[in-house]
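Fold this sequence, please.
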Amino acid sequence: MKILAIGKNYVKDKSELEAIDKGFQMIFSKPESSLLTNNKDLVYPEFTSKLVYEAELVIKIGKTGKDINVADASDYISDIAIGIDYTAKDVLNQVREGKGPWELAKGFDGAAPISSFLPVSNFKDLNDINFSLTINNEEKQVGNTDFMIYNFAEIIAFTSQFMTLNPGDLIFTGTPAFGTGESVKGDHLQAYIEGKLLLDFKVI
């Protein structure tokens, strides 16, 4: 099972989309061991002092595909969840200095808390899904898929040019342009899709 993620995929204002020259998408991966499921609490990693959260919708692939057309790509989604793409930002800064890969900063145990999944059939319009994140009962991030630079179908089509997508593969689809920040011990994170609480855990 692959866990893929896309970086820099939301604009602050939809008017920005017209000026963006779409091209090569920024895709990275996380290992399966980074998943944190069933609303388990996240143990703050000892190797970092700057743990940064990014709330993201996560799509699950439902059937095998390679070189998928954009027009058909949405048919490969079986379910949708919400998750957190965690980054050990100080570790990331270190590896960037040496132009190294991101795995240590993005792929550590617990770096990908994820909610239970909702069937894709629950969503009438994949380009109009609302989601949000609160920390300690304070709203930190609000997003809607209409603000994506690359929508779900474009992400799937692009990625499948390079690798076969299989049932169960997960793709973190990017975070809203506002509200990312730092998690500290004691934080209580709650994430919602269309107002439904799906992800609920603490940093300990």
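The CA atoms of residues 129 and 144 lie 5 Å apart. The first strand starts at residue 3 and ends at 6.
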